[in-house]
Amino acid sequence: MLLKKAELIQARHPDCMPTAICFEAWAQEWMLKEVGGRVKASTYQRYSTIMRKHIMPYLGQLKLADISRDTVQLLVDGMEKANYAEATIRSMVKLLGNALSAAYDGGIIPTNPCKGVVIRRTQLSEQRVLTRSEQERLRRCAEQADIPALLALYTGMRLGEICALRWEDINWESGTLCVRRTVQRLSCQGMQTKTTLSVGLPKTKASHRVIPVPSFLLEELAKRRKEATEQGFVFGSAEVPAEPRTIQRRSKRLMRRAEIYNVHFHTLRHTFATRMLELGTDIKTVSELLGHQSAKMTLDIYSHSLLTQKARAIESLAKLF
Questions:
Q1: Which of 15, 64, 94, 246 is 20 to 30 A away from residue 196, measured at CA?
Q2: 243 falls within a domain
Q3: CA-CA distance, 20 to 75, in Å (whole number)?
Q4: What pTM did the predictor assign?
Q5: Spatial distance between the Cα atoms of 165 and 236, rounded to a whole number of angstroms
Q6: Which domain holds residue 216?
Q7: CATH number of the domain where residue 63 is located
Q8: What are the residues whose beta carbons fall under 8 Å from the beta carbon of 172, sequence distance 6 or more?
Q9: E-assigned strands of 94-248?
Q10: pLDDT digits (tens, 9 = 90+) for 52-87
Q11: What pLDDT is stored for residue 123 in this prediction?
Q12: Could you give the C-alpha distances from 55 to 26, 27, 44, 72, 105, in angstroms and in order?
């Protein structure tokens, strides 16, 4: 299959020997045949963006045989100097490595040049979270139109998950809701400026979860349910989910009313996680509520909050004697 890809490229470029195939031609064929149809549309778009923005400008016109480990390392070093996040660089190297691994398996290159590339670990910047007084002020200022912001603040749900919430996802008896899907804006195939609202599966398998909802929020949701004229999406219509950008604009207005600045919608999710840790909730529970793939991911993101919690515990111990 992989050799056939090389033959197909050669058929389109008769004067091009396998070792002379440029990376751009190979990567386009690989994305189309090996990646397309095997990943979610949102994932494919993310891969395409990484290829277009970070890889093609540097490697696109190089021959596969001319890409070495030093070539890839220079790309990585350049991204680090440009202050790209470590996660972005790792995603780029992983995608590039997968494409070149296919060329290696097809016998076109002797080794995968991504092997042995060094990515420097960077310290995660501390996430901005609301203070307790800001959180209380936000809750007091919130109106029924601001329920999405309160859901993020008191359940840790992602914006796309809130937009995709349907009435049947809420279990009124148990006081819980189930995260079953997410909403994203994706570029239309072959069109850079046109986008479409897409409803898909949650971000990961762990993101499919059941979350308890505070009683005051259940009451607000029940009021909204009584006023709703049709089944369907809680913050959208029967067939169309809520538009993430609309929810974000409403959230900004709420922040201004509450006189809270330098925050964005995702800050509410970070605040939820931080409050849980401050209350002594174990890391596994917080990880499951957030829908993280592992507790390690939660530890990496909220290590500062955990350190503060440990310091308080040590102080409490010292006061016992």
A1: 94
A2: yes
A3: 21
A4: 0.72
A5: 9
A6: 132-318
A7: 1.10.150.130
A8: 218, 222
A9: 170-171, 176-179, 182-187, 195-200, 209-212
A10: 999 999 999 999 999 999 999 999 999 999 988 888
A11: 62
A12: 13, 10, 15, 10, 21
